[in-house]
Amino acid sequence: MHTDTERCVRAVRSKDARFDGWFFTAVLTTRIYCRPSCPVVPPKTENMTFYPSAAACQQAGFRACKRCRPDTSPGSPEWNARADSVARAMRLIRDGVVDREGVPGLAARLGYSARQIERQLLAELGAGPLALARAQRAQTARVLIETTALPMAEVAFAAGFSSVRTFNDTVREVFALAPGELRARAARTARAPATPGVITLRLPYRAPLNPSNLFGHLAVTAVPGVEEWRDGAYRRTLDLPHGHGIVALTPRPDHIACRLSLTDPRDLTLAISRCRRLLDLDADPVAVDEQLLTDPLLAPLVDEAPGRRVPRTVDGAEFAVRAVLGQQVSTAAARTHAARLVTAHGTPVDDPEGGLTHLFPDPEALAGLDPEQLALPGSRRRTLTTLVHALAAGSLRLGPDSDWERARAELAALPGFGPWTVEVIAMRALGDPDAFLPTDLGIRRSAQRLGLPSTPAALTARAASWRPWRAYAVQYLWTVDDHPINHLPSPQGSAP
Fold this sequence. Notes:
By secondary structure, the protein is an alpha+beta fold. It has helices at about 5-15, 55-60, 80, 85-95, 95-110, 115-125, 130-145, 150-160, 165-175, 180-190, 210-220, 270-280, 285-290, 300-305, 315-325, 330-345, 365, 380-395, 405-410, 420-430, 440-450, 455-460, 470-480, and strands at about 25, 30-35, 50, 65, 200-205, 225-230, 235-240, 245-250, 255-260.
């Protein structure tokens, strides 16, 4: 979009927050870059230039605006809506892969050479993987500086910097303030004292966001010991590269309040990325709803409660296991099966607030389970054990770097994986916004009540006009049934 100067200028002059994250405005006279919704008086058109990423702005010598804080913009919705190599690279960079594995590691995950990845990212984003990772490190550093009391040296290494000097230089260059000045400035505006060991931040999103189905779905399907709904927040454990974490996510009118407890602050970048993916916070709800509103039978559902998101997952392998456990059983039964796996094979964790007891077991831990101990039909046991062995061996990968169509084909080749299981994993674990569930009983029932075709083939044909947002259409169709997943739990309630 940054190449459409006229459209960008209109967005800046109208301070349209819908375009935050789509592009960044760099002001030639002040050498500052802003988000489109920056509250300051817009500069003259001839003084504006536009970039596709914050990293490209920084690489061109611009620093972040102190008023609109462009580093806190939602991510571009393109990276979640596309499955090409650039989108997959951006999802991996957002997960901190470059910091942990370097550019060669990024390239190896994508099946390209480092030179090819560099060329593709430069062409589309105006910055290579190192510059993009550097911009993300700066953002992570700012969060740690402003929300924790960690010494600056610990902040530097937790954010992924190789030295304190590089950390200091980058923070000054990007934010025009020294790290100590950033902390002092944040302390003057802090609303509440920081809790030791807890990182509190705001997760931005593009409005509108309807929290009902998003948090309702997560609360109703919560696995005891791993997830819970408490005091108006969805809480869960996180299995991270350097340790574990516990997150509490609370819907607010203009952001998601996020409280993170991490055993190692180096996992902050990945933890934030997983939380954003879980809640689908980088979606563009206006574009989604505009497309779905073109169907007169679907339009009333969209008009009634716009901005529905797709509840996703923090771990693709975890969700795939849970999807198999949920085949042809009730939500309550699926939770019971998952809870038994967690108790038997999950890693115990301490939760100061109580309620959360384990990490969900990873494929390696589940690969050694005795199928005879599973209270499942024989065919389901074979499906589960085949899945966990494929995940543990690495022959099946369900991560941000997965090619959606290849993953679908690999899942479909496993015994016991029909269209419903493949598509629900594509929708929630892989993040494909066009995944569709025409064989789902609830979808077929809703379609019939709305006057839509109810047979899978006919409904799929009708849903062609909803592409590429059929996963969002599924969320609206599910609301036709009065199911608990469609309702935000009470603030005092807990997951059933």
